[in-house]
């Protein structure tokens, strides 16, 4: 018998699989529902959607939805005086409970004074999932669709890449895959991907 898969549910156990999951991400044209991302599973069924400001009409705000169009995560970029005085660009992700109350789940910080596209971007969890330091780190270049999300122990939990037939075409930034490791929360990973897409002038950004 194989070892039991450890489930790391952040949004919901519903989005944690006992086996590796490959999600195909495609840019949604601005002419269709205001742009954003559409995410399909290996059966080519819609698994998630990401709406950006083209749909929402609000700059620096993103929503991750499931296949039934239910909102899973609301993500906002910090602004105002606090952001202007900060050394980081900071995003915060919120989930909603059954009463509609928003609960902070994670924050993502990108160093403002970073002159390399491969500078680490770190993720800090809220509540019961948090540690004393950063919890996850993006290593590599999302701009090139070649990066990984690692936890604090250095374990890869998700990887972003491009298939060989796409890598040399102009579509490499519009069509790519995300491999999520067994037991890890796919909805959370898509929340991170949504922020990275916005950071690097993707389909969610106006």
From TrEMBL:
Top-rank taxon: Eukaryota
Q: Which InterPro entries does the annotation name? A: LOR, LOR_sf, Tubby-like_C
Q: Which Pfam families match?
A: LOR
SUPFAM superfamilies in the cross-refs: Tubby C-terminal domain-like
Q: Which family does it belong to?
A: Belongs to the LOR family.
Protein name as annotated: Tubby C-terminal domain-containing protein
């Amino acid at each position: 018998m194989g070892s039991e898969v450890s489930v790391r549910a952040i949004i919901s156990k519903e989005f944690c699989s006992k086996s590796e999951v490959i999600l195909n991400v495609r840019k949604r044209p601005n002419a269709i529902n205001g742009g954003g991302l559409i995410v399909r599973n290996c059966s080519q069924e819609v698994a998630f959607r990401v709406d950006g400001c083209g749909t929402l009409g609000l700059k620096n705000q993103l929503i991750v939805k499931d296949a039934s169009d239910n909102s899973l995560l609301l993500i906002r970029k910090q602004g105002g005086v606090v952001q202007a005085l900060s050394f980081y660009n900071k995003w915060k992700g919120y989930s909603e409970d059954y009463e509609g109350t928003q609960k902070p789940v994670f924050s993502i910080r990108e160093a403002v004074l970073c002159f390399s596209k491969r500078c680490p971007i770190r993720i800090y969890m809220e509540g019961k999932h948090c540690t004393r330091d950063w919890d996850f780190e993006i290593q590599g270049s999302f701009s090139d669709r070649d990066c990984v999300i690692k936890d604090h122990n250095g374990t890869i939990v998700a990887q972003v890449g491009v298939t060989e037939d796409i890598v040399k075409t102009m579509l490499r930034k519009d069509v790519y895959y995300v491999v999520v490791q067994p037991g890890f929360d796919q909805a959370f990973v898509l929340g991170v991907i949504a922020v990275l897409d916005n950071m690097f002038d993707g389909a969610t950004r106006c």
